Amino acid sequence: MFDLSSLNEQQRCEFLKHQLDGLDEREIDYLVKKTSGLYFGEMSTLRDLVKSSGGSFDEQLEKFQSNRKFQQENKLKIDSVKWGDVGGLGDIKELITDTILLPLKYPGLFKSTESQLGITRSGILLYGPPGTGKTLLAKAISNECALNFLSVKGPELLDMYVGQTEQNVRNLFEKARLNSPCILFFDELDSLAPVRGRAGDSGGVMDRVVSQLLTEIDGMDKLNSHEEISHIFLIGATNRPDLIDQSLLRPGRFDKLVYVPIAKTFEERFKIFDALTKKLPIDALFDKEEFIKRKCPNNLSGADFYAITNKARQNAIKRIISASEIATDNQDEVIKEEDFVKCLEDFNANLSDQELVIYENYFNKFSNKN
Ligand SMILES: Nc1ncnc2c1ncn2[C@@H]1O[C@H](COP(=O)(O)OP(=O)(O)OP(=O)(O)O)[C@@H](O)[C@H]1O
Q1: Atom of ligand 1 lying closest to residue 89 CA
Q2: What is the domain partition of the chain in residue ranges?
Q3: Ligand 1 pocket test target in 306, 308, 311, 313 with most atoms within 8 Å of CB
Q4: In angstroms, what is the span from residue 244 Cα to ligand 1's centroid?
Q5: What's the CA gap between 168 and 172, in Å, rounded?
Q6: Helices 302-322 & 337-345, crossing angle to 10 degrees?
Q7: DSSP character at residue 122
Q8: Considering the domain 266-350 in this protein, what is its CATH number?
Q9: Are 209 and 256 in contact (CB under 8 A)?
């Protein structure tokens, strides 16, 4: 009866009349208008939700549509990063998984405020030099644990209108509650939550934002507007943890501080390079280990390896085109060692050796303090 395109007005009317009991004409009219653009499958999902979890069709529809909008607005969700795409960082992956999975498995034992057992639910603050995979880790954990992923970059929430930034923070947490279980990822947390009293903005906007954030984080366990318990997991990322208002690092907030360093050993560098290249068509003669050991400098970050890999692909394409090597069976369309080596000719790592030492000293001091 229905095809796979979205249902027209009459089809939606038929559906509502026949698939749901107890709706009068006025309600049907109203719902027909509100369901514009929905597919048969989506209408069926809504019907099943009403039947299984109660509530009215209208309530379930509102939730469904906010979920749909959320998925569209937060595109990070659709790039499905897996643990295998994150090279190295084994200890960190384990720690993050435990921090997120245990409260999901044993929700009663974890609360954002201290429970009787003294266990508090933790938020994670990933800190370290740029390009070391902090964002990548957060995306991967949301996929691995099948959680929604809501990401905000510090300045995105800021608004010039009085009170609007605080409202944006409130909306963000309500959105997270509605899409629970969910990871709420704050990139560049330092720019959203700087130490209070120092921001230098005349109206004290940043101070109010920090206060609003604290209120929302402490109230994370409250029910959402559909009276459901929510599971929100906080992950923040920053290059400057010292600039973040310290109250945000207290128990139940971003209290698990995790340093994400630049790879120090050959093995770690190899794992990153391998994760980035394993799905690419690479010449079987290319020896990745030799390339990392003999050709690559030791100060490369994951983002540097990503840039090298991308450049090598471009080099391969140029080489193939200029040599008119485009073979119909595309046997020769592979990235060769020379394509990688060529990238390094004029490649500058994101951080020089000196900058790396400065970063390391600074992070060591920060880690010792905490
Ligand atoms: N450990 C890694 N394994 C595989 N790829 C990595 C790794 N680290 C970084 N990358 C690559 O570098 C890109 C940038 O990394 P990402 O954005 O996660 O770094 P970041 O630490 O969040 O940086 P910033 O502090 O500048 O925001 C990733 O999209 C990925 O392609």
Answers
A1: 1
A2: 9-72, 76-259, 266-350
A3: 306
A4: 21
A5: 6
A6: 120
A7: -
A8: 1.10.8.60
A9: no
| Ligand 1 binding pocket, CB closer than 6 Å | 86-89, 130-136, 237, 239, 272, 275-276, 302-303, 306
The C-alpha atoms of residue 260 and residue 86 are separated, in whole angstroms, by 12
pLDDT average, residue stretch 135-146: 87
ipTM associated with this complex: 0.98
Q: How many CA atoms are closer than 13 Å to the CA of 353, on its beta-carbon side?
A: 2
Give the Å distance between the CA of 250 and the centre of ligand 1: 27
Q: The domain 76-259: what is its CATH number?
A: 3.40.50.300
Residues 61-115: pLDDT tens digits? 877 776 665 555 544 344 588 889 999 999 999 988 888 877 777 766 665 455 5
The pTM assigned to this predicted structure is 0.74
Where residue 133 falls (left for φ over 0; alpha for ψ -120 to 50; beta otherwise) is left
Per residue in 142-171, pLDDT (tens digit) is: 888 878 888 888 777 776 666 777 888 888
Q: Which residues contact 128 (CB under 8 A, 6 or more apart)?
A: 134, 239, 259, 260, 261, 262, 363
Residue 286: how many CB atoms within 10 A of its CB? 18
